[in-house]
Design brief:
The chain is of the alpha+beta class. The protein has 5 domains: 193 residues, no CATH class; 191 residues, Valyl/Leucyl/Isoleucyl-tRNA synthetase, editing domain (Isoleucyl-tRNA Synthetase, domain 2), CATH 3.90.740.10; 123 residues, no CATH class; 148 residues, Isoleucyl-tRNA Synthetase, Domain 1, CATH 1.10.730; 60 residues, Roll (Ubiquitin-like (UB roll)), CATH 3.10.20. The protein is built from 29 helices and 34 strands. Strands 8, 9, 10, 11, 12, 13 and 14 form a 7-stranded mixed sheet that branches. Strands 21, 22, 23, 26, 27 and 28 form a 6-stranded mixed sheet that branches. Helix 21 packs across helix 22 and helix 23 packs across helix 25. The protein is globular, with a radius of gyration of 36 Å. The relative contact order is 0.06. The structure holds one RNA strand.
RNA sequence: GCGGGCGUGGUGAAAUUGGUAGACACGCUAGACUUAGGAUCUAGUGCUGCGAGGCUUGGGGGUUCGAGUCCCUCCGCCCGCACCA
């Protein structure tokens, strides 16, 4: 990726060497620079560049490139934190203050692939929901880029603000401009008198996460810069503000505020008393923005009277003609941040020489190019470290290993790659894991081709699954593999969650010196008491009063506590039977509660429960090995299938596994009796037995196709119940049945297969063919409804015609009773389904 | 806030194309066999009502001969939101 660039002309990734050749002959006239759209040079200029200038320029084209991104910086911990390590604006560990800090980072230019990532979704067998999520994440929008010049007389700096808008038709409704607080122009345009206010506001914004900035739309914040921009058509001067609702990474990091047509702009204008220009005539009521797209545009110069699509076209054409803007496609998708300041992650094969990054495979020095890792010293391996402490100035731990960082060619990159680096291509490596000259041979990837079926969770919808797709396209473009989509079919499986258990500690603050506690240990309350107290102020007071009376030396309640609450504490699920706590086991596990007092309800301590991800830290882990030891792998496997549809998440609950276990025992008893031993006979099967077998073959075949394993298990249960009732022990039925059940209960199937006298494994046996003739019926019990409510059942031949059925139904005494003498208005007969009489 | 998903008995669920709601299990109740039962078998089990019957798929409304399924609307829950991986 470092050695490649994206050709917008050919719409594919290409080697960077080809770009260098192009620059040498024609400069970049035919290849707009994705990193800097205004960069232009010819061949002569290119040749005159220094080595460093050339490399800097190429960096703006590379698919793996360096840029700047904001990270959470925690001064106290001396490290960069992940989003989920920042809680309520402070570090999760230690509660230290954090702020957004700009840092140099590696990126992958996934935005260049945006269009293809949308287009080729069509050829994937993924759920519509999944495709929808990816489309929305990529967020293609068509609109215009518009330049507003700043008013030199009123602004500190001169120049222009470029905005992206999906509604160029509303350009006459612009009443203000808003820049992201991080926007590079802000420093230059802020007037002296607004300097302090702007600084203060930016300090506030630094503490805000992007999520908060997007979510909390009701609370309007912002700050005027003192600068004004000039409307391109009316020459009206509009104030330039900064506000957190404009994000630096979206579009150009600046918007034109059209309060009459956009809700957030409207709220902003109202909040800061900015006069609102109405461009929708009567459709805009002054109270809320008119954001529907069905009005005509009014009060808008040459756009007045046009509908929205026409006005959009006209506005863009006028902007282009005036040289003030252009048509533009924008994507919400951002280039993927590819640096982490962590130890665990693939190290970059990058060396800095005089601050300029080179690939370790670029022949930098003899020792590097012939080092241990092969000719190009790939792969670069993580060095051993004594400590995982962060490096200086927010660098990763690798920065501390100076021996490793400093090579005779230059300094190594100390960032590492993120988790999705490996997850984007591991499936390719699996195709050729022993290869030590390339990631996978073309022969191997051509043979194995795409992943046929990928089972994964929706949590990967817009991360891993999008990055893998981009990665695959890049490798395809560069000729390393022969397919451009990694996962042909995708199925989302649900998660088996944990069910956590909680006890509740009475947590109180005593008023000073007022009381002595009679307790030796903490006070734990059963769930029912806590629930009642939390639901009801009176109950809460009553409970506290009672606790004061029972457990404290001073029962003058009003003088006892300054406050109290019920603090939940996780307990290991193995000490809880259902919801009832084994108090002794708990005390043993947590010695600090050995002297605790437990307040019970009905003689039991009832725990609280919550469904969460299964995790050691939540003490809610159930180990599958224990289940397998108790019930066997077949029972475990079938029970997991039986729990419900494959794509639904649910908490693990061992209750119910008995049913599946009983089923397998009953299934076994068709073949072997506890006392009599093997009971399989060679008798001829009856029609009824064959019907059961073939209904089962049909159902299982269909269910497997649609991954409906829970209903398959049900069908096996129905089959075994019916065969048991018939007392069937016939080889003609039971031998094929063992083959059908094999994918669901392979161990028992294999054993029965052997006992039936077969050589070879049951997995090699061919799946029994379904034969229609065994299951066809010639009559059907029809539900007969009056006005849609089923009142009785009547049996008719399947080939009976409507007239004879109608006559029979209307003559039926049950039906006559329900008709109550009224004449039927309509008779509905759906062959093979039902009958409905409308009166 | 935005995007996606889900909501059916005491519990897990089924109903595949708009056609008998609750299949199959768990649990529970009663019984049989048994020295014993955490084995096995039988019957019952959505709610309500003595009964005929009535009610019932998160709430409300609509389309239809017929709605768990389609449409509108409201409520609730779960997942993702770019440095958890």
């Amino acid at each position: 990726m470092f050695h490649s660039w994206y050709s917008r002309k050919e719409n594919k990734a290409k080697p960077i060497s080809e770009l260098i050749s192009i620059f040498e002959t024609e400069g970049n006239v035919n290849h707009t620079c994705p990193g800097d759209e205004n960069l232009q040079f010819d061949a002569a200029a290119w040749k005159a560049y220094s080595e460093k200038e050339k490399r800097d320029c190429l960096m703006q084209y590379r698919i793996a490139y360096q840029g700047y991104a904001q990270v959470w910086w925690c001064e106290a911990l001396g490290t960069v934190l992940a989003n989920d390590e920042v809680v309520n604006g402070v570090s999760e560990r230690g509660g230290h203050p954090v702020e957004r800090k700009n840092m140099r980072q590696w990126f992958l230019r996934i935005t260049e692939f945006a269009e293809r990532l949308i287009d080729s979704l069509d050829k994937l067998e993924w759920s519509d929901a999944m495709k929808e999520m990816q489309k929305n994440w990529i967020g293609k929008s068509v609109g215009a880029e518009v330049r507003f010049s700043l008013s030199p007389s009123l602004s500190e700096g001169e120049g222009e603000v470029t905005v992206f808008t999906t509604r160029p038709d509303t350009i006459f409704g612009v009443d203000f401009m808003v820049l992201a607080p991080e926007h590079e122009l802000v420093d230059g345009i802020t007037t002296a008198e607004q300097q302090n206010a702007v600084e203060e506001y930016r300090t506030y914004v630094k503490t805000r996460s992007e999520r908060e900035r997007m979510s909390e739309v009701k609370q309007v914040t912002g700050c005027f810069t003192g600068a004004y921009a000039i409307h391109p058509f009316t020459e009206k001067q509009v104030p330039v503000w900064i506000s957190e609702y404009v994000l630096a990474g979206y579009g150009t990091g600046a918007i034109m505020g059209v309060p009459s047509g956009d809700e957030r702009d409207h709220a902003f204008a109202k909040h800061f008393n900015i006069p609102i220009t109405n461009i929708f005539g009567e459709k805009y009521n002054g109270e809320e923005a008119y954001s529907a797209k069905t009005s005509t545009i009014e009060n808008s110069g040459f756009l007045s009277g046009m509908n929205i699509p026409d006005a959009t076209e006209a506005a863009i054409n006028a902007l282009v003609k005036a040289g003030l803007g252009k048509r533009k496609v924008n994507y919400k998708l951002r280039d993927a941040g590819f640096s982490r300041q962590r130890y665990w992650g693939e190290p970059f094969p990058i060396i800095y020489i005089d601050g300029v990054p080179y690939g370790t495979d670029e022949g930098l020095s003899p020792s590097l190019s012939k080092g241990e890792g092969g000719i190009s010293q790939l792969p670069v391996e993580l060095p051993y470290v004594e400590s995982y402490k962060p490096g200086p100035e927010g660098q990763g731990p690798l920065a501390n290993i100076t021996d490793w960082v400093n090579t005779d060619a230059g300094q190594r990159e100390t960032n590492t790659m993120p988790g999705y680096a490996g997850s984007s291509w591991y499936f390719l490596r699996y195709m050729d894991p022993g290869n030590n000259t390339e990631f996978a041979s073309r022969k191997a990837t051509d043979y194995w081709n795409q992943v046929d079926l990928y089972i994964g969770g929706t949590e990967h919808a817009v991360g891993h699954l999008l990055y893998s797709r981009m990665w695959t396209k890049a490798l395809y473009d560069l000729g390393h593999i022969g397919f451009d989509e990694p996962f042909k079919k995708l199925l989302n499986q649900g998660m088996i969650q944990g069910s956590s258990r909680f006890v509740y500690i009475f947590d109180y603050q005593l008023k000073e010196e007022k009381a002595e506690l009679k307790l030796k240990g903490p006070l734990l309350l059963s769930l029912g008491l806590v629930k009642e107290a939390l639901n009801n102020v009176e109950a809460n007071m009553k409970l506290a009063r009672k606790l004061a009376d029972d457990y404290f030396s001073n029962s003058l309640f009003d003088e006892l506590f300054s406050g109290w609450n019920f603090r939940p504490l996780r307990v290991d699920v193995s000490f809880v039977d259902g919801l009832e706590l084994d108090i002794e086991a708990f005390k043993k596990w947590r010695p600090e509660y050995a002297d605790a007092e437990f307040i019970l309800e009905d003689g039991k301590y009832i725990c609280g429960a919550e469904v969460e991800k299964m995790s050691k830290s939540k003490y809610n882990v159930v180990n599958p090995d224990d289940i397998v030891a108790q019930y066997g792998a077949d029972t475990f496997r079938m029970y997991e299938m039986f729990l419900g549809p494959i794509d639904v998440s649910k908490p693990w609950d061992t209750k119910g596994i008995e049913g599946v276990h009983r089923f397998l025992k009953k299934f076994w008893r068709l073949y072997a009796d506890e006392t009599k031993g093997w009971v399989v006979t060679d008798e001829k099967a009856t029609d009824a037995e064959l019907r059961i077998l073939h209904k089962t073959i049909k159902k299982i075949s269909e269910d497997i196709e649609r991954f409906s394993f829970n209903t398959s298990v049900s069908q096996f249960m129905i089959c075994v119940n019916e065969l048991s009732t018939l007392g069937c022990h016939k080889r003609e039925i039971l031998e094929p049945l063992a083959v059908v059940i094999c994918p669901f209960a392979p161990h028992i199937a294999e054993e029965l297969w052997q006992k039936l006298g077969n050589s070879g494994s049951v997995v090699a046996a061919s799946f029994p063919a379904f034969e229609d003739r065994f299951v066809t019926e010639n009559s059907k019990m029809y539900p007969v409804a009056i006005n849609g409510k089923t009142r009785t059942e009547m049996e008719f031949a399947l080939d009976a015609d409507q007239a004879s059925i109608e006559a029979a139904v209307l003559a039926d005494e049950n039906i006559i009773k329900w008709l109550e003498g009224k004449a039927p208005k309509k008779f509905i007969f759906v062959k093979g389904k039902m009958i409905n009489v409308v009166v």
